[in-house]
Amino acid sequence: MNPKDNKARPDRARHKAALLKAYDDAARIAFSPFIFQAAVAAKKLGMMARLGAAAEPVRYEVLAEEAGVSPYGARLLMQILSAAGVVEGSDEAGYLLTKTGECLTYDAMTAANFDFTADVNYKGLAETTEAIRTGKPAGLKAFDPAWETIYPHLKDLPAEAQKSWFAFDHFYSDGAFREALRVLAARAPARFFDIGGNTGRFTKMALEAWPETEATIVDLPEQIGLMRANPDLEGLQHRIRAFPIDWLSEGASLDGAGEADLIWMSQFLDCFSRAEAVGILNEAKKALAENGVIVVMEPLCDRQRNDTAALSLAASSLYFTVLANGNSRFFFEADLLEIFEAAGLEVIESHPNLGVCHTLFVLRPKV
Amino acid sequence: MNPKDNKARPDRARHKAALLKAYDDAARIAFSPFIFQAAVAAKKLGMMARLGAAAEPVRYEVLAEEAGVSPYGARLLMQILSAAGVVEGSDEAGYLLTKTGECLTYDAMTAANFDFTADVNYKGLAETTEAIRTGKPAGLKAFDPAWETIYPHLKDLPAEAQKSWFAFDHFYSDGAFREALRVLAARAPARFFDIGGNTGRFTKMALEAWPETEATIVDLPEQIGLMRANPDLEGLQHRIRAFPIDWLSEGASLDGAGEADLIWMSQFLDCFSRAEAVGILNEAKKALAENGVIVVMEPLCDRQRNDTAALSLAASSLYFTVLANGNSRFFFEADLLEIFEAAGLEVIESHPNLGVCHTLFVLRPKV
């Protein structure tokens, strides 16, 4: 053995360890749909909650009996989830949740993400290659081959998918809305537009925070219908006007909607291509009262608190590609600033880290 | 601050690190179908191969142009795969494969697993909960709602799924068959049965290794048809008899198949429930010539080389639940030994670690 061999050895050991780790990571990706669906089944069959609530490890036969399934099925699920680090234990000693399993079961954000993936996205994601090839949300055919975008069909989603869609949406927006209203406290407008206001969730919070304010919700006719039927808005409907619009139709404009002191757009521009977003902001500018502001709130891919949040945002961007409209995504900060610039708007305030992952911009027309 | 606080601090730091790790692991599971399908799309669009072959990092615009897709789509895929550790780099500097990405692209086993998951299992796995509830392979409806098990329909699978099914099957069996024939070198039989012989892949290797031997392939009529049409068996067909059988039909037996010195069953018993497996072995015993042996080769969940292999086996067991027959799986060693015992067979040899993951048992009837 010569000195060169000696010197090479620690490198080789590191190389080997890195290679085995990569090999394991790759296997976890290659089999990830098995792991994911084993976790979905264990959750839907009540096993995750049962394991989480147990003081002692639970045997698979007990899980099977309580869920009304075969011991074979319960055992298989536990073994996959054990190999994947979601549960720990053995057939003999019984199983418990690991910390990872606890996050999936008890962390509200992780649970909202998990259900959104399982109930809204899983089947459609099989069409990812086609969606990227065609620029169309090819995954929507998992729900209905006639749908062109998801937005007018939220009301038509199967019950479980609809529930998970709104739970996901609301989880992220509720906290961000609360904090945004604190940031905007000194700007209480006489009248504001809620563009992409959907079923009126932000409008409700805003009208409660600003008792003198009137709102106009600007959205697709289908969304306006859901908003008018929304029991949460009882007692507020007289302060809400509706302005139905399809921004993707030729010549869409806010003519006839009146003026607003504040135009609010939360997670709205990310539903459009760059050119469409610039066009929408230009239309919004025309409807601003003197000294009015446009307020845009978005989760920004490069302004997240940590790598986990960045992964979550990158992954869920694919929802837009495959199921929503085929060509939008969450923004990087520079992309959004460029859109503001192209629309002739200047940023007068920005507030990162509202709620879980949002950044809020206050904009006014450039002079 | 009292001493108790001081003492608690390192524990708290460890707890925090473990919690953040669990939170990240849970997010990777919750979004895993997005990551998986982003990798599938990057592979099918040729981006993985392109990145793997590149000497320098490749920008997403270049990947997009070469694949004939939008820069938007290529960028989104790279960002998801980057957050997931499959590629590394940035929009500005360009992207390269990580070691994990190299495993997915160049390691033949990982690639076979990945394609099997994507093309055969992904859609059907959405029915995991129903399959576990009903004991039926509910995921088969992703191919055809009329199919009751996958076995007679391998010939009817869509081209891509069929290719990935056989690539997966052959990857594992080829190496194990070669090593099994080495182990059995001294036992060259005058006549052997290949039970569950499928398209004749083992029979071909065995007839080449044993030039004096005759084979009988025992399988479903559909499989026999594929075997007789298999161009690989040209020049060997005169040494092959066929015995069509459906083991799940009432009174299935080997009567009329003659006697065998060696009865071979590779990854066959795992397609059946415990009681069915015992019944099949009992039938096989009756067809043994004097001093004949039954040879069973199976991947055993608890006899794998490492955790990665154990995860792979646990995960792919779910294929049996959701897509194959609804109630079988890869064995644990004790389960299989119990089945041998119940069928009145004794193990005279066992050989672990043949090929990637198989264990071979040589059995004879107990006296």
Structure description:
2 copies of one chain form a homodimer. Chain A is an alpha/beta fold and 367 residues long. Chain A has 2 domains: 31-106, Arc Repressor Mutant, subunit A; 172-365, 3-Layer(aba) Sandwich (Rossmann fold). Helices cover 49% and strands 17% of the residues of chain A. Chain A contains 14 helices and 9 strands. Chain A has helices at 3-30, 32-44, 47-53, 60-67, 71-83, 99-106, 108-121, 128-134, 159-183, 201-209, 221-228, 274-286, 307-324, 333-342, and strands at residues 87-90, 94-97, 191-195, 214-219, 240-244, 260-266, 288-299, 345-354, 358-365. The first copy, chain A, has a 7-stranded mixed beta sheet, with helices on both faces. Chain A has a two-stranded antiparallel sheet with strand order 1-2. In chain A, strand 3 (191-195), helix 10 and strand 4 form a beta-alpha-beta unit. The longest helix of chain A has 28 residues, at 3-30. The interface between A and B is large, with 81 and 81 residues.
- Quantity of strands of chain A, as a count: 9
Count of helical stretches of chain A: 14
User: Rg of chain A from C-alpha positions?
Assistant: 25 Å
Q: How much of the residues of chain A is beta strand, in percent?
A: 15-25%
Order of helices and strands of chain A: HHHHHEEHHHHEHEHEEHEHHEE
* Strand arrangement across the biggest beta sheet of chain A: 5-4-3-6-7-9-8
Mean pLDDT of chain A: 94
CATH architecture term of the largest domain in chain A: 3-Layer(aba) Sandwich
Instruction: Indicate the low-confidence ranges of chain A by residue numbers.
Output: none
| Multimeric status of the protein | homodimer
What is the total number of structural domains of chain A?
Answer: 2
Overall geometry of chain A comes to globular
Our measurement of the CA-to-CA distance between the termini of chain A, rounded to an integer number of angstroms, reads 76 Å
Q: At the third CATH level, what is the topology name of the largest domain in chain A?
A: Rossmann fold
User: Helix amount of chain A, in percent?
Assistant: 40-55%
Largest Cβ-defined interface: A-B, 81 and 81 residues
Structural class of chain A: alpha/beta
Question: How would you characterize the largest beta sheet of chain A?
Answer: 7 strands, mixed
Task: Give the C-level CATH assignment of the largest domain in chain A.
Answer: Alpha Beta
**CATH homologous superfamily assignment of the largest domain in chain A:** Vaccinia Virus protein VP39
